[in-house]
Amino acid sequence: MKSKYWIISGVVLIAVIITVTIVVKKDKKPLLTFEKIKRGDITATVSATGQINPVVWAQVGAQVSGQIIKLFADFNSVVKKGELLALIDPTPFQAALTQATANLVSAKAGVSQAKATMELDRSNYERDLSLPTELISQQTVETAKSTYDVAAASFSAAQAAVLQAQANLNIAKFNLAHTRILSPLNGVVITRVVNTGQTVASAFQTPDLFDIAENLEKMESDTNVVETDIGRVKIGQKAQFNVDAYPNTVFTGTVAIIRNAPMVIQNVVNYDVIIYIDNKDLKLKPGMTSYVTIDVGRKDGILMIPNAALRFAPKNSDAILRTYSMHNKLPSWAAAGSNEADKKEWYRITKVWVYRDNNFVPLPVKTGIRDNNFTELAQGDLKEGDEVVTGYQAGQ
């Protein structure tokens, strides 16, 4: 009986040792997360932020200084081209016009007087010049000529005074006319920055009185695209965007203009991309912030790699890559150059990791377009259904 007991005990002990060994070995295997290579559609996008503005709008200013005595338009007023928006006190400008008119009349009278004097002096000179030399001295002739020349000069000066007076009159008329602030286009008043009784001064720059948008049904998003993405943006591409006012509504538009002028925003070079938007329901208002996604490419039915797999690297990746760089050649399409050293350079290529026979194995891949979740598998030793490592499980 004792021998049978010891035999059973030995068998149980061996079974326990084998079980513990398997569990220990199993515990040494890292707990990983995997995803499969699959087929699907990828739409590559560029994300950016912008501001909603009218396509055509104008800042209406004052070209003369004075006091606003009446307003004819307010916020959201619908106005026509040439319609009166505001009136600057015309009293001083009317007085200046009256004075300029009087100066012109006076200058014209001076011309008539100077002309009469010149004609008289010319007649005297011509008469003296026609007399025989024994009846008139040479000095008298020269004096008559000099008097005529002075009269001719005075006549020219009087004519110049008329031109100057006419110019002053034109300026006075211009200033009086511009006391009436008129709309330059058909549209809607977005901004009014003056009130009745306020004085505007145009001595150094034209003050901005009104902002008028031509048509709020046609808007644009002035979008800032960083220089790393601008090469993928083309005119005619479709765009979607959201605004904070309607977080659940997706608006659409089309890339219309890509401006070449660089803008440095927080030390990053950006380019202004204009996206035209149909705003018939008038939901979008000037000044709203737009969160834009531009579709820059699409492929259907392609093999896709999870983006997490491209970011993953095992904790002992350096040692593994050193081994692979010594014993495994890169395929020709993945090699950086033609020499053998470049073909063994595993460090700088795009790769994913698979777990085979308790070991991490790097696989070189050539990628194409990508979206937020997947990247196109253009070349590589992977097929649909293959599992690639995307990370360690929590706590590993």
Describe the structure.
By secondary structure, this protein is an alpha+beta fold. The chain folds into three domains: 32-41 and 302-392, conserved putative lor/sdh protein from methanococcus maripaludis s2 fold, CATH 2.40.420; 46-55 and 218-298, Elongation Factor Tu (Ef-tu), domain 3 (Beta Barrel), CATH 2.40.30; 90-178, Helix hairpin bin (Helix Hairpins). The protein has seven helices and 19 strands. The strands form four sheets. The chain has a six-stranded antiparallel β-barrel with strand order 2-11-14-13-12-15. A hairpin with a 3-residue loop joins strand 17 (359-370) and strand 18. 21% of the residues are buried.
Q: Got a strand count?
A: 19
The 3D shape can be described as elongated
Task: Note the main sheet.
Answer: 6 strands, antiparallel, barrel
| Proportion of residues in extended strands | 35-45%
Helical coverage, percent range: 25-40%
| Arrangement of strands in the largest sheet | 2-11-14-13-12-15
Mean pLDDT: 88
What CATH calls the topology of the largest domain is: conserved putative lor/sdh protein from methanococcus maripaludis s2 fold
Number of helices: 7
For the record, give the distance between the C-alpha atoms at the N and C termini, rounded to a whole number: 49 Å
Radius of gyration: 44 Å
CATH class of the largest domain: Mainly Beta
Overall number of structural domains: 3
The ordered string of helix (H) and strand (E) elements is HEEEEEEHHEEEEEHEEEEHHHEEEE
Fold blueprint:
Blueprint (H helix, E strand, L loop, with lengths): L1 H27 L3 E5 L1 E17 L2 E5 L4 E6 L6 E2 L4 E5 L2 H40 L7 H40 L2 E3 L4 E6 L6 E2 L7 E6 L4 E9 H4 L7 E6 L2 E20 L2 E11 L10 E18 H5 L5 H11 L12 H4 L7 E6 L2 E12 L3 E7 L6 E6 L4
Helix pairs in contact: 2-3
